[in-house]
């Protein structure tokens, strides 16, 4: 994986090989393919906090429709980020929980949160200057 710290810098220009660049791009595209959309990380984050039923998830992830939530849950289960537990009660109980694999996103979610906060502040400052 290429990090900014590992890149050689000549006159403030990072030098990376064509292969390294292509490899990094492929890795990023793979990650974005699996985590695409605006809801997947929010659903994962909600389930990392605690296991939930469908309606609890929909209530916590504000703004998501039941149709989209159902699709996202299927995608996340397919990629082993969540587990769907079916309990033979009357009526049937279904509880969703985060898997150990979803915890591998901890750093990614943390970095996105930090960047999002910085970006929000940048936009606020930009709007203040325009006023």
UniProtKB/TrEMBL annotation:
It holds the Pfam family HxlR. Signal peptide: none annotated. SUPFAM superfamilies: Winged helix' DNA-binding domain. The lineage of its organism: Bacteria, Pseudomonadati, Bacteroidota, Sphingobacteriia, Sphingobacteriales. This is HTH hxlR-type domain-containing protein. It comes from Mucilaginibacter dorajii. Keywords: DNA-binding, Transcription, Transcription regulation. InterPro entries: HTH_HxlR, WH-like_DNA-bd_sf, WH_DNA-bd_sf. It comes from the Bacteria. Coiled coil: none annotated. Residues 21-124 form the HTH hxlR-type domain.
